[in-house]
Structures are given as C-alpha cells and as structure tokens.
Amino acid sequence: MPWFYLVLAGLTEIIWAIGLKYTESFTRPLPTIGVIIAMAISFFFLSLALKDIPIGTAYAVWTGIGAVGVAIIGMIYFGDPVNTLRIIFLTLIIGGVIGLKLSTIYAK
C-alpha cells in the first residue's frame, strides 16, 4: 500500500501544480481552494507512504511523478515545446523513479 499511496500523492501533485496556473497568483478563490485541497490530499498520501518508504526515495518519486506529469500535460494542453531532448530527459526521470522503486525492493 505505501507505493500506492505514493502514486496517489504524485498524481494529486500534478493536479495542484497545474491548478496553480489558474489561481492567478491566488487571486481567484475557487481555483485557489481547489489547489489547497489538492495540496492537502497530496501531502496526506505522501505522509502515509513515508511510514514505510525512506524519505529520500519517497520525495524523489513524488516530485518525479509530479514533474513528468506536469511536463506531459503542458506539452499536450498548453503548447509547451515538444522535442527530442525533452522526451529523453523526461524518460530519464521515469527511469530514475523506477530505479528508486527497485532499489527499495532489493534493499530489504
């Protein structure tokens, strides 16, 4: 379950990070409330994951999921640049997340 919680934390991080765009520096109440709720949910699931996953691993995976997710959404929906180097480096982040997961399996 801790890895499931960590994935949920990462997915809700994507939601609040994208939502920040719509808060307009926290001047729009509804998007701001949505971002705060998504942040709280993300931190809650991260805290559950930290009961069993080392903090360095959990934090790196959490931010990795968020970074890759936001980058992909940015490319698809917001016109962020799509090029070979971006795809390569996003793939490296994904590889790092997978590697951290595997390292916790084999460390036991």
Give a concise summary.
The protein is an all-alpha fold and 108 residues long. The protein is built from 4 helices and no strands. It has helices at 2-23, 29-49, 55-77, 84-106.
Description of the structure:
This protein is mainly α and 108 residues long. The protein has one domain. The chain is built from four helices and no strands. The protein has helices at residues 2-23, 29-49, 55-77, 84-106. α1 runs antiparallel to α2, α1 (2-23) packs across α3 and α3 (55-77) packs antiparallel against α4 (84-106). The longest helix has 23 residues, at 55-77. It is flat and about 45 Å long.
- Averaged pLDDT: 94
Series of secondary-structure elements, N-terminal to C-terminal: HHHH
What kind of sheet is the major sheet?
Answer: none
Number of separate strands = 0
Q: How many angstroms does the end-to-end distance come to?
A: 16 Å
The helix count comes to 4
Report Rg: 15 Å
Number of domains: 1
Could you say which structural class the secondary elements and strand pairing correspond to?
mainly alpha
- Low-confidence segments, given as residue ranges, are none
Percentage of residues in DSSP E strands? under 5%
Q: What helical percentage do the residues reach? A: over 70%
Shape, per Cα inertia axes:
flat
Subcellular location: Cell membrane
Organism: Poriferisphaera corsica
Family: Belongs to the drug/metabolite transporter (DMT) superfamily. Small multidrug resistance (SMR) (TC 2.A.7.1) family. Gdx/SugE subfamily.
Main location: membrane
